[in-house]
């Protein structure tokens, strides 16, 4: 049973565009929602994360929007650059005693063209 | 600052062989975990630990063993390798708040 569903699988945008990646979750106990960026041959790296007490969080060009009632959250990349080309994963977990247990989406391969 | 270090980076095993994937962290995190990454499936949790001497199973634990004798180290053992265990393996260590740091991965091929 996939608890975190991510879409789209792949995305191509032009430089300066705003790619949007969406995730939906099922487990209402989740209270931590991170996004990870992964370049080929590397491990995932934390990009930005949000908790369910806020509806939006911005860090630089990256924004998470969170809709608790719909059990959905999304990543927006403003003014996208070719260097943003990577695979992006959403994830969810319950912090505290099970902070190690991240449930990941299946990933979105983003390509930013010139 | 090394963060999370995994060894080896690449490994080829024959079916039935056993091996240990090493993971070490220098951030003094209590929480550590192992994931496998397969195309189109994201990362799936194999085993995790909330402190030295405490481990538990994740989503896909069959065929793998772990132990945690120190805070720093969390090795993953493949008992009898099978082709279905061909994957990229990632170790992570985490703050209690959930922020996780991943190693560079071990690419394992079982023939």
Structural commentary:
The complex is a heterodimer of chains A (114) and B (111). Helices cover 0% and strands 51% of the residues of chain A. Chain A is mainly beta and 114 residues long. In chain A, strands 2, 4, 5, 9, 10 and 11 form a 6-stranded mixed β-sheet that branches. Chain A has a 5-stranded antiparallel β-sheet with strand order 1-3-8-7-6, with no helix packed on it. The termini of chain A are far apart. The relative contact order of chain A is 0.33. Chain B is globular, with a radius of gyration of 13 Å. In chain B, strands 2, 4, 5, 6, 9, 10 and 11 form a 7-stranded mixed β-sheet that branches. In chain B, strands 1-3-8-7 form a 4-stranded antiparallel β-sheet, with no helix packed on it. Chain B has no helices and 11 strands. The mean pLDDT of chain B is 94. Helix content of chain B is 0%, strand content 51%. Classes of the chains: A mainly beta (114), B mainly beta (111).
Q: How are the secondary structure elements laid out?
A:
The complex is a heterodimer of chains A (114) and B (111).
Chain A: E1 4-7, E2 10-14, E3 20-25, E4 33-38, E5 45-50, E6 56-59, E7 62-67, E8 72-77, E9 86-92, E10 103-104, E11 108-113
Parallel strand pairs in A: 2-11
Antiparallel strand pairs in A: 1-3, 3-8, 4-5, 4-9, 6-7, 7-8, 9-10, 9-11
Chain B: E1 4-7, E2 10-13, E3 19-25, E4 31-37, E5 43-51, E6 54-57, E7 64-66, E8 76-78, E9 87-94, E10 100-102, E11 106-110
Parallel strand pairs in B: 2-11
Antiparallel strand pairs in B: 1-3, 3-8, 4-5, 4-9, 5-6, 7-8, 9-10, 9-11
Elements of chain B, N to C (H/E): EEEEEEEEEEE
Q: How much helicity do the residues of chain A have? A: under 10%
| Quaternary structure | heterodimer
What is the gyration radius of chain A calculated from CA atoms? 14 Å
Overall mean pLDDT of chain B:
94
Largest sheet of chain B: 7 strands, mixed
Number of strands of chain A: 11
Name the overall outline of chain A: globular
Beta-strand content of chain B? over 45%
* Biggest interface: A-B, 27 and 29 residues
Low-confidence stretches of chain B: none
Q: Roughly how many Å is the radius of gyration of chain B?
A: 13 Å
String of helices and strands of chain A: EEEEEEEEEEE
Secondary structure tally: strands of chain B: 11
| Overall pLDDT confidence of chain A | 93
Number of helices of chain B: 0
The biggest beta sheet of chain A reads:
6 strands, mixed
Distance between the termini of chain B: 36 Å
Q: Which range best describes the helical content of chain B: under 10%, 10-25%, 25-40%, 40-55%, 55-70% or over 70%?
A: under 10%
- Per DSSP, the total helix count of chain A is 0
Q: Give the overall shape of chain B, derived from the CA principal axes.
A: globular
């Amino acid at each position: 049973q996939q608890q975190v569903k991510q879409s789209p699988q792949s995305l191509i945008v032009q430089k300066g565009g705003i790619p949007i990646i969406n995730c939906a979750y099922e487990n209402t106990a989740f209270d931590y929602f991170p996004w990870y960026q992964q370049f080929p041959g590397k491990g995932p790296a934390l990009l930005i994360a949000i908790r369910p007490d806020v509806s939006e969080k911005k860090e630089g060009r990256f924004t998470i929007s969170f809709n608790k009632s719909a059990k959905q959250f999304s990543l927006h990349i403003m003014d996208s650059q070719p260097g943003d080309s990577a695979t992006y994963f959403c994830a969810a977990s319950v912090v505290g005693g099970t902070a190690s247990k991240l449930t990941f989406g299946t990933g979105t391969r983003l390509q930013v063209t010139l | 600052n090394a963060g999370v270090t995994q060894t080896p980076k690449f490994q080829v095993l024959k079916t039935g062989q056993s091996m240990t994937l090493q993971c070490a962290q220098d951030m003094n995190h209590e929480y550590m975990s192992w994931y496998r990454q397969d195309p189109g499936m994201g990362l799936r949790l194999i085993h995790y630990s909330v402190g030295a001497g405490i481990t538990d199973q994740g989503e896909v634990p069959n065929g793998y063993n772990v132990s945690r004798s120190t805070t720093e180290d969390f090795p993953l053992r493949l008992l009898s390798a099978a082709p279905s265990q061909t994957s990229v393996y990632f170790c992570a260590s985490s703050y209690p708040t959930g922020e996780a740091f991943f190693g560079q991965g071990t690419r394992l091929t079982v023939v």
